Each structure stands twice: as C-alpha cells, then as structure tokens.
Amino acid sequence: MTSKPAIHVVGLTKSYADHQVLKGVDLTVPAGSVYALLGSNGAGKTTAVRILATLLKADGGTAAVDGHDVATEPDAVRRSISLTGQFAAVDEVLTGRENLVLVAELRRVPDPGALADELLARFDLTEAAGRRAATYSGGMRRRLDIAMSLVGDASVLFLDEPTTGLDPQSRIEVWDTVRQLAGRGTTVLLTTQYLDEAEQLADRIAVLHEGRIIADGTLAELKQLLPPAEVEYVVKQPSLEDVFLAIVGKTSSDSPNPTLATKDA
Ligand SMILES: Nc1ncnc2c1ncn2[C@@H]1O[C@H](COP(=O)(O)OP(=O)(O)OP(=O)(O)O)[C@@H](O)[C@H]1O
Ligand SMILES: [Mg+2]
After folding, report:
1. Which atom of ligand 1 is found nearest the CA of 44?
2. Higher-confidence residue: 243 or 191?
3. Distance CA 89, CA 85 (A)
4. Structural contact between residues 125 and 173, judged by C-beta atoms closer than 8 angstroms
5. 69 with 102, same domain?
6. pLDDT category of residue 265 using cuts at 50, 70 and 90
7. Domain of residue 108, CATH code
8. Which topology term describes how it sits in the membrane (predicted)?
C-alpha cells in the first residue's frame, strides 16, 4: 500500500443539458479506507461514481483513481477498479453460477469455476446457483451482483447503494464483506441512503449537497459539527442522521426542536 490517495478529485463539474449536478466536487479517499458518500436523491452520487468509474465524462476538474487520471488513462483506471452499480448488472438469462463464471473468464481468473463456487458459498447462493437469475429475489440478485464485483481483486471498489432493498440479514452480510475487503487493503467508496450504514462501515464520510461536498470527515469529526442535543433531562449525542439533516438544511417533521432533528431514544 502507498500513502497516495486511492481517489483524488478536484473541482469536478458535470451538467446534464442546463442542469448542473456537480458544481466543483473535491474529494480525497485514503488508500485502504472505506469512504461513504451521502446525499439526498438526485444529489449526484451516481453521477460522481460513474465519472470515477470512467463510464461518464466530467465537464471540468480532475479525478484520479489509483494514481491514474480518469479522463486521460481510462484503461489503467478500469484495471484498478470494480463497480457495483445502483441497478444490477446481473444477466437474468444465465444462472447465478454462470454469471460469476462469465465475469471470472472476462477477468482472466485462473480457475473461474472454483472462484464462482467460493463466492456463491460466501453470499449464501449455493442452493440457487443453478437457477436462472431471473427467478432470484431482489436481495439474492443484489448479493450476486456484489459477488460479481469481487471477482478479480480490484484495488478500488465502488458500491453504489449496495444494500438498498436488502433484508437486515443480507445487509449485515454485505457489511461483513466490505469490512473483510477493507481489512485486505481494498479501498471502498460506497454511496448509501442508510445513515446507519455509513456509521457502521465508513472510516470517513462525505455529504454531497447542491453540487458540492459540504462536509467530510470521520464520524467523530462530523458529530462535532453539532452540540449534543438535550432531550428532556438526558444529554444526547447527535447521531449521524441529526448531523446530516442539519447540514443539508432539513428537519424531520416530528422533531420538537426546529433546528435539530432528533431520533427517539
Ligand atoms: N442521463 C441523465 N440525463 C439527464 N439528467 C440526469 C441523467 N442522469 C442523472 N440526471 C440527473 O442528475 C441528477 C443527479 O442524479 P444522480 O443519479 O447522480 O443522483 P443520485 O445522488 O445518485 O440520486 P439517488 O439517490 O436517487 O440514486 C438528478 O437530478 C438526475 O435527474
Ligand atoms: Mg444514485
């Protein structure tokens, strides 16, 4: 591992027609860390991930992944990364095992069948391995999709809302997998709508809002942005959700305190 950041983004801009989605995004993701990118629907998380994964061109700014510029060295970037997109890349005509073997063959893994079987077992899909993916539940499809992105040992993994639609048990399995990968030195950039997911997994958290990163840091650093909230006679530390809602300027409707959303204890 190097001390060079795995992802380094400066002043990234992107518009769709006259709608400017990214207005100058700056982001530095240390190698080997798990980094969570939070933002409301439409904030531009998927847009940013697609630019970093070389699927979309930025209008301005620079972005480097694993030391390679996404605009000028896209092939080198693609060799370093793996992406699980927000919408599953699973081929529904193939069985779960066939999907994995296909990706393993494309990535020139020495023994595609053995790796497929190992990943099927790890994601609790062994029993369903021989069934067409079209017959899988949403959660099974998601697990297969993530398993496919783990083929080939990428050094930087992008997970765009990896646990949306998963049941609690499957979410925990995905979290464990992310932790294992991080333990082996893989850098993980994940987007999520689940603030507890960011609290659980991320070494650092960034909030994308109105085209810019408006806050980033460790959970402890973000919590310092707000004073502890007083709820009746108990002093309560703000949760990440409180911090998030306060900095993006929203309050939950049932909050007794208009400046701070607090969850029930
Ligand atoms: N291909 C496109 N053409 C036009 N507008 C687009 C396109 N892709 C995204 N947008 C718009 O850009 C904005 C950001 O979209 P993006 O998908 O990056 O957001 P997101 O943060 O990933 O949202 P979500 O949480 O819903 O996944 C949205 O307003 C969206 O409608
Ligand atoms: Mg998205």
Report:
1. 18
2. 191
3. 7
4. no
5. yes
6. very low
7. 3.40.50.300
8. Peripheral membrane protein
Q: Residue 3 corresponds to which tokens in the numbers above?
A: 């001390």
Q: What's the domain range around 117? A: 7-217
Nearest-atom index, ligand 1, CA of 161? 27
Q: Which residues line ligand 1 (CB under 6 A)?
A: 16, 21, 39, 41-47, 86
pTM of the model: 0.83
Ligand 1 centroid from CA 44, angstroms = 6
In this prediction, residue 138 has a pLDDT band, given cuts at 50, 70 and 90, of: confident
Of all protein residues, the one whose alpha carbon is nearest to atom 6 of ligand 1 is 16
CB 182 within 8 A of CB 32: yes
* Phi, psi of 44, rounded to the nearest 5 degrees: 115, 15
Residues 245 and 206 in one domain: no
Answer yes or no: is 120 within a domain: yes
User: In terms of C-beta density within 10 A (0-12 exposed, 13-18 middle, 19 or more buried), how is residue 234 classed?
Assistant: exposed
Q: Residue 71 has which token pair?
A: 């605009």
